[in-house]
Amino acid sequence: MERIGLRIRLLKFFNRHPHTKAFGILLPCMFWIGVFFLLPLVFMATYSFLERALYGGVQLIFTWENYTRFVDPLYLKILLRSFRISFLTTVILLIIGYPMAYRIAMADKRWRNILLFLVVLPFWTSDLIRTYAWMLILRDTGLLNFLLQYLHVIKKPLTLLYTEGAILLGLAYVYLPFMVLPLYASIEKLDRSLLEAAEDLGATPFWRFLKVTVPLTKSGILAGSLLVFIPSVGAFIVPDLLGGAKAMMIGNLVQLQFGPSRNWPFGSAASFILMTIVLLAVFTYLRFAGGKEAMEEAR
């Protein structure tokens, strides 16, 4: 009886204070975000202003050196390379992914699910294994060089592995589904009658695509671009295996500081610099490329 009375009192309390009920529902999510996201960020922010200890770890000595050190041309070159490769990856996947998503969205229903399954099929295999497969294909004695030499296209093996081109190829392969799926979701909801109306008004297929299809699928373009660009900037598995030391990206630099170098303060500072620049770039992109309406759709 006491438990029933307590439940009745709680129900009456929540009915009188609905905002308390909403807070109670959100409390587990807030706890999860606070413990596993915000708290590690606080630790990293603290570490970024401390000095590295002699044998790794940190010393409780405040310093700005970890941030000023990043101005070194070596680290700026790595940062610029990361953004350049990520931008090119996004553009290439947008060019490849949009026709794929459009064709899947316009296909018959019996084929649509099969095509979507083929798009997400690579997720069934680890990115690490797929990247190792590309190493076997691109190395000097790999499958691609063997075929080119067998067909007498080249006389000696080409240097394909450990280059920026190899990183670009690997990132494009890994993140292609992240571009196709948002584009498909946006194109699939497209009102076909608008395309028919544009055709009746005399619009050619090119102008119908440019003036009707692209503006109406802007939210998918924005979502796909962000889902590809953001993880590409911080990627380290693909650049490490396909790029090596000659084409290091910012993700490899951070991993190196927290790993072999054991310079946690500088690794934390590099992470926060990257996060700040990415956030500024994303908000600028949403502001000028999408406008307020696209920002609301992206949210």
Write the layout of secondary structure elements.
Blueprint: H1 2-16, H2 18-47, E1 50-52, E2 58-62, H3 65-68, H4 73-106, H5 109-120, H6 127-138, H7 143-150, H8 164-188, H9 192-200, H10 205-216, H11 218-233, H12 237-243, H13 250-258, H14 264-298
Antiparallel strand pairs: 1-2
Plain-language structure description:
This protein has 299 residues and is mainly alpha-helical. It folds into two domains: 1-43, no CATH class; 70-298, MetI-like fold (Orthogonal Bundle), CATH 1.10.3720. The protein is built from 14 helices and two strands; from the N terminus they run ααββαααααααααααα. Strands 1-2 form a two-stranded antiparallel sheet. A hairpin with a 5-residue loop joins strand 1 and strand 2. The longest helix is centred in the last third of the chain and has 35 residues, at 264-298. The radius of gyration is 25 Å and the shape is globular.
Nearest-integer average pLDDT: 85
Radius of gyration: 25 Å
* Percent in helix: over 70%
Poorly predicted spans: 292-299
CA-to-CA gap between the ends?
Answer: 46 Å
Strand order of the largest sheet: 1-2
Task: Please write the string of helix (H) and strand (E) elements.
Answer: HHEEHHHHHHHHHHHH
Strand content: under 5%
Query: Any idea how many domains?
Result: 2
State the name of the first-level CATH class of the largest domain.
Mainly Alpha
CATH architecture label name of the largest domain: Orthogonal Bundle
